[in-house]
Structures are given as structure tokens and as C-alpha cells.
Design goal:
The protein is 77% helix and 0% strand. The longest helix has 32 residues. It comes from Rubus argutus (Southern blackberry).
């Protein structure tokens, strides 16, 4: 256990050294490549305007998303009506998707309880 801790500390130290040497260069390169997205001057008013644009753009996309969801639901309903014609592969994919959703729900519940299985903290 102690050797694993030393290895972890060593790797963390190496990562810190790498970031201290190359972090500034990476930051400058990233800003330079994406400077077309930077608003000058960055005022409170401009930030407020951009956040409103993002909010209302997302809000305006809801009808399209609703339409896509309705198409997906119609497809699932048609599959359910013709389930006797369903292939094993399709049923397997549906079962894996359901299992994945269930697992994400369980992981979310465990995370919500502070990563404890029973809900009691030790």
C-alpha cells in the first residue's frame, strides 16, 4: 500500500512538473487558435447578452427536439407492435440500453448518497 502511495505521489509530481513547463504554452496556443470566439472587450453587459443568446437559442431548439423525440417514440411503438418480427440483435440492443439506463440510475443514487451503498456515512 505504501509503495502504491509513493508511486501515485511520484506520478502526481511528474504531472505537476509537466504542467509547470508546458501549461502556459498550451494555454497560449489554445487561446490563439480560438480567438475568433473571444469577445473584446469582455464587459458584464456583453457576457449578459451572450448568456441570453445561448438561453433563447436553446429554448428555440425545443420544438425540433420535441419532434425528434416524437419520431423516436413512434419508431419504438411500431417495433413494439411488431415485436414478433423483432430480431435477436435488436432485442439485445434494447436490453443493453435498458440495463445501461438502470445502471446510470443506480450510480446516480449512490453518488447522491455520498458514494455509500446504504446511505450511512462511516
Amino acid at each position: 500500500m505504501a509503495s502504491q502511495l509513493r508511486q501515485l505521489q511520484s506520478k502526481a509530481c511528474q504531472a505537476t512538473q509537466f504542467l509547470s513547463k508546458h501549461g502556459t504554452t498550451y494555454y497560449k496556443q489554445l487561446i490563439e487558435q480560438n480567438k475568433q470566439y473571444i469577445q473584446e472587450p469582455a464587459t458584464v453587459e456583453k457576457c449578459s447578452e451572450l448568456s441570453k443568446q445561448l438561453f433563447y437559442t436553446r429554448l428555440a431548439s425545443l420544438p425540433g427536439r420535441k419532434e425528434s423525440l416524437q419520431k423516436e417514440l413512434e419508431y419504438v411503438k411500431s417495433l413494439w407492435k411488431n415485436r414478433q418480427d423483432l430480431k435477436v440483435e435488436d432485442a439485445g440492443i434494447a436490453a443493453l440500453f435498458g440495463l445501461e439506463c438502470y445502471c446510470w440510475f443506480c450510480v446516480g443514487e449512490i453518488a447522491g448518497r455520498g458514494f455509500s451503498i446504504t446511505g450511512y456515512h462511516v
